[in-house]
Amino acid sequence: MTSPSTTSPEPAARTARVSLDRFQIGLLVLCGLLTVGALIYGGYLLTVFQLAMIYGVFCIGLNFFMGYTGQASFGQNAFACIGGYGSAILCVQYGWEPALAMIVSMVVAGVAALLIGYPTLRLRGHYLAMATFSLGLITYDISIHWTSLTQGYMGYSGIPPLGIAGFEIENERWKLVALVVLLGFAFWISQRMRDSRFGRGLRAISGSENGAAALGIRVPRFKLIAFVIAALYASAAGSLFAHTVGFISPEVFGPQMSIITFTMLYVGGVGTMIGPIVGAIVASLLPEIFRSVGKFQDIAYAVVLLGMLIYAPKGLSSLGKLFRPRKREEA
């Protein structure tokens, strides 16, 4: 006789969900308090936290592809470039509303990811990393030399702030509040997908592609969908940057964007639930903290990052495991 525990899908779905431990909840609370402090204090901190929220959206998508699927992509800045320039061109040249321009730019980035990802994701390992890195470089080069469309190094200015139906958010504090809400919404969607059957399939691919294929998972299709999802997040982040700062240029979406977001993701924790958010905030604050040391700022920043990689290789979100009491081995 078959036991109900093996036939009912409910327990399996329940065990697939991963809850936050006390340490991770504490990190989220700390990040929330720091954000509230920035709202109260104002000034330059508002800009730092605005950018942290935008990078958080970017990193959530990057984590979905790298952390949950176990693939490497160094070219997500290409889709952020599409989102940023798409919003800038549609709003400045054609007078579109920011929300509509952002959505259309995401659609364009998603289609581009679909067309590029279909042949590219057949590669594996460092070949995939090199191919995606080339994608970012090509997009960056296009943004520089296609001056009739992107205005090259002159960039786009006068980009309207976030808004919908004629209402625009011009106050810097309210911009941060709006970005926090959008980051929370992006996080919620990511977790819904992560806990779904599709998300469990991605984690199976991360463990072993051959094993996932043996279980009936269509590995190429799942990887392509994850790549498109990451591109949508990156495009949204690019659009948010354009509407928050009001100006974009090719340097914003250059290769350094990939380096910054990789740093944030590894600081927070690749493949963890809150890693993208924690990493984006911590990595954005560290340069400001070390600014007082003057010319030794970069050295201090590098030493702290190296220390994190050595003593917290799985990111800050996983540090809570060090404080858990070890279970005694059963005889």
Provide the β-strand percentage band: under 5%
Q: What is the count of DSSP helices, taking H or I runs of 4+ residues? A: 15
Quick one: overall form? Answer: globular
Question: Element order, helices and strands?
Answer: HHHHHHHHEEEHHHHEHHH
Global mean pLDDT: 86
Task: Outline the structure in words.
- The protein is mostly helical and 331 residues long.
- The chain contains 15 helices and 4 strands.
- The strands form 2 sheets. Strands 1-4 form a two-stranded antiparallel ribbon. The chain has a two-stranded antiparallel ribbon with strand order 2-3.
- Residues 1-16 have low confidence and may be disordered.
What would the keywords be for this entry?
two-stranded antiparallel ribbon, mainly alpha, 331 residues
